[in-house]
Amino acid sequence: MIRINAVGVVVTMSVLALALAGCAPTSGPVGGSGSPTQPDTSTPAQTQPAHPQGKFDGIPKHCLSSADISLALHLQIPIMQENDISGTLICSYHGTSSSDPNLQIGFNTAPAGMTVDTYKTKEQSSLPTAVFVPGVGDAAFYYTSAKLPSEMKFISNGVSCVIVTFNFTADKGHMITLAESVLEG
Q1: Could you tell me the maximum CA-CA distance found in the chain, to the nearest angstrom?
Q2: How confident is the model at residue 4 (pLDDT cuts 50, 70, 90)?
């Protein structure tokens, strides 16, 4: 077990290990050139995703900020903890109380030989209530259960990502927005 915060929120590695694990690269503005003495007449600067076309380029090096998570979910989750455990990045987001919303994002290298078709088959057979979500990574699924209020699983360029909520349920739309934020970095 890993103790996530001082108020006793505990997450077992088995929850994230079953799902594989989650993400968050960084991005920055890319754009105009110009000199300090002349005005910049090039195209305005635009923020580009860290991973073109919403695809990972390996396991991200860092987690999204808690502000990015809060914005995607329309919910305040002020504390972020980042752990790299044997090549698996685990991003934990929580409040100061054990009853506050808690979110885990983990990601890991997808199993060797995993294709979009084998991933779809595996997820649909192990989670019959899972809903396929087109347009997120290479393949994605969203589902809810009594044990985990909401979960989004997806693969992208050989990286498996899992987003799990505790103490709150995020609807499919918010989980898709969050997954897209994770993919964009």
Answers
A1: 63
A2: very low
Which stretches does DSSP call E strand in the chain? Answer: 2-3, 10-11, 29-30, 46-47, 79-85, 88-94, 102-109, 131-132, 139-143, 151-156, 159-166
Dist. CA 37–CA 28, nearest whole Å: 24
Q: Which of 119, 120, 121 is nearest to 111 (CA)?
A: 119
The overall average pLDDT reported for the chain is 75
Three-class DSSP category at 159: strand
Rounded Cα–Cα distance for residues 87 and 43 (Å): 39
User: For residue 145, what pLDDT is reported?
Assistant: 83
**Sign of the torsion angle spanned by Cα atoms 64, 142, 94, 110:** negative
Give the 3-state secondary structure of 35-56. CCCCCCCCCCCEECCCCHHHCC
Task: Choose among 160, 71, 168, 86: nearest CA to 119.
Answer: 160
- Our measurement of the distance from residue 86's CA atom to the centroid of its chain's CA atoms, rounded to an integer in Å, reads 18
pTM: 0.72
Tell me the C-alpha distance between 11 and 136, whole Å: 26
